[in-house]
Amino acid sequence: MTSQWRVGAILNEPLADTLRFAAWYLDAGASGLTLLFDNPEDPALEVLASHPSVTCIPCTAEFWADLGLTPDTRFTKRQNMALSWVYRSMPDGWLLNVDADEFLHVINGAVSSFLAAMPAETEAVRVETAEIVVGPAGATENIYRLPMERDVARRVYGDSAALFGPRRKGLIGHPQGKSFVRCGLPGVSLRQHWAQRADGSEIAERYVPVREGAALLHHIGLDYAVWRAKLDWRLVSSGFTVPLTERIRAMLDLPDAEERLRTLHADLHGVDAERLDRLRAEGVSLELPIDLDGITARRFGKGHGAA
Questions:
Q1: CB 221, CB 239: distance < 8 Å
Q2: Which keywords label this protein (predicted)?
Q3: Domains in the chain, start-ordered, CATH in brackets?
Q4: Model confidence pLDDT, tens digit, residues 207-266
Q5: Contact status, residue 284 vs residue 188, Cβ threshold 8 Å
């Protein structure tokens, strides 16, 4: 027995990243993707619009006006409103609400079978985050760190643990994960990590940690150039913890700022052999033979900017 599921996302990414995202979910068995393009002239529209399983929606001023918003409305508000609109258009099955750098993975088996095993009364399934890190030289698999308690973070990261803050559980991004929401629930709207009801009543949610066989693979911060390009935006949008924001702002005023930022990035988003051993010893690592570029090439070829 299997369950039908779809993906909804709002994107504004380089073409190669958008194709990588679409390829992953098509390969994982999604019955459809509804992709909202925050840039209504995104080049991915030309590539993906003709795909039979992909619905592409350019987010024009008219699109936002229909939702009572404008293109200048705060992004998270637009994201939540737009994905709630997508959710209400889905008659059945499940909708997974994710960002372009998030790849839902069932470790042994198919996503559809994973969802079919959920009790009928389950209205949402939230899957724990696994955050990618740059591994030591010679690593042959993708390495991910898992959310961890503060004492574990201190043992793994030493003095750098303070930069992760008390709430992100040893991650730079979010530890909350992302959710599949059963379609057709009345009075439901979507937020970034979960669904909520207008009347405040609780959603019947099942939380699935990585150790139970599923992970939201978060490919955040892996490339320094991309991380650096988004730095100013994250500094003003609460993208980092307060201690990390303060550390970065202090660095930006120094003559060797770029060198310091590179060192900081390597510390936050990489693990040497010793740190990897500590992650393993604490049980907060996941290593997977994931080949995103290979999946993308199979789905879309090596053109269009895909690797």
A1: no
A2: Transferase
A3: 5-222+282-300 (3.90.550), 224-279 (no CATH)
A4: 999 999 999 999 998 999 989 998 998 898 888 889 999 999 999 999 999 999 999 999
A5: no
